[in-house]
Structure formats: structure tokens, C-alpha cells
Amino acid sequence: MNTEALQKISKFGLYQKRIAFILLLAALVGTPLLFGSVFIMYLPSHRCYVPQLDDNATDSNVDFERVDDEATLSLYLPIEISSDGVKRWSECYRYNYTSQPSFNSSSPKAANQSLVYCDKGWKYNKPDAVTSATTEFNLVCDQSLVRPLFPALQMSGFMVGSLLGGILSDRYGRRKAMLFSMTSLAASILWVGLAQSVLALQIGIFVFGISIIMRAVTSFVLLNEVVCGDRRRTFGILFSVFCAV
């Protein structure tokens, strides 16, 4: 856009105000997911799922954080020392019982039992309504290294999108690049919400990173082209505020 022509027509008329307002609203799209990785990757305290204990409806409410349940859980779970020196129930191993242990003196001692990996899954100490990618896909123990890959993929998407956004906006125009980034951003958010596997979630996070940085780059440039003069500084700050809301 010719800046001199814009100044002659109107420095900041109704048209420019409407476009600037729409661009500021566009900055709100996708921001919750951008800063919501701490909730998506939420890791509650957890232990092995013990069939002898958790398959029983009367015992399924045993809470491994309660002192009253320590005697019961000690028959199934070993105690380990965390990195900060705190004792806790093992998160990745359980005792290999083939039958239901009892509390009488003739029952096998837990210390004499071999350990087995959490082959039956995990039980998380959380409300039933609270879920995350970690609890849904069991990204714990040997799969715990998968969790840091999600922010890394998002940052990789930022790198690709920052380069791709400039190329597309110069080649096809700001408006087309803006519409493309908004469409792909909405699609990636829907994809992340409906992902049924870790790979699908990783793809969605990567595409989301590309799309949201493309939207940010193109909309910020458009905003500076529409707004002229000293208002650019004000709207540049407002754009950052809307991105952070």
C-alpha cells in the first residue's frame, strides 16, 4: 500500500479502523493452545495399575496419597526415592503377584516378590474429568521422553512458519497468506483436539506452530501497512497484548 496515498486520503479513517480491529481480533485465535502446553502435557502423580486391586469395584477408590491405604498398597507397590529425596510409591514397577495377596501372616512377603513393569497401564491421581495428553497416551516411564518433543516440534514449526510466511506473503500477497494461515490454524487446532495417537498429535502441534507464526507475521505486517504515523507504535503494542490475552 502506498503510504503517501494513504496519508492524503485519510490518516486513520473508518476503513483503517475496521481492518485494524479485525487484525487485532485475529491475534486472539490459537493463543490459548500456544500457551496451554503446560495443561496439555499435565503430569499428575501416578502408579502402576494393579488388576488385583483396581479391578475390584470396592477397592478401586484406594488413594495412594492416603496414609490409611499404605498397608494395602505396600503389598503391590515398592517404594522408591525421588530425585528430591522424597519417598513415594514406584511409578513404573509393581510386585509380580499372580494371585490376590492377603494381610495374614501366611501371605507372601512383598519383599520376596519380583518386580514387573507396569504392563497393565497406570492409575493417575486425578479427578476423572481431568485429562491430558500424558494421561491419555500414557507418556510416562519409558515414554516420558516423548513429552519434551511437543514444545520442540512447536518451536520447529515457528522456525518453518516464520520463513514460509514471508515467502508466501511476498509471492501471493498479504491477504491470501493471512487467510491461508488462519484456515490452517483452525484446522490444526481441530486436529490436535481430535488426535487419536501420539504421532497425530505431534503432526498437529507442528502444523499449529507453522500456522500461528504465519498468522502473526502476516497480520502484523498488514497492521503496520494499514496504520500510519505514530499510531503504528500503539497498535504494535496492542497486537502483542492481544496475542498474550
Automatic annotation (TrEMBL):
Protein name: Major facilitator superfamily (MFS) profile domain-containing protein
The keyword Transmembrane helix is assigned to this record: yes
Pfam family, one: Sugar_tr
Keywords: Membrane, Transmembrane, Transmembrane helix
Gene Ontology molecular function: transmembrane transporter activity
Superkingdom, taxonomy of origin: Eukaryota
Ranges annotated as spanning the membrane: 21-43, 149-168, 177-194, 200-223
GO cellular component, one term: membrane
Main location (coarse class): membrane
Record flagged with keyword Transmembrane helix: yes
Organism the protein comes from: Ciona savignyi (Pacific transparent sea squirt)
UniProt cross-references to InterPro entries, sorted A to Z: MFS_dom (IPR020846), MFS_sugar_transport-like (IPR005828), MFS_trans_sf (IPR036259), Sugar_transporter_CS (IPR005829)
Subcellular localization(s) per the UniProt record: Membrane
Membrane topology (UniProt): Multi-pass membrane protein
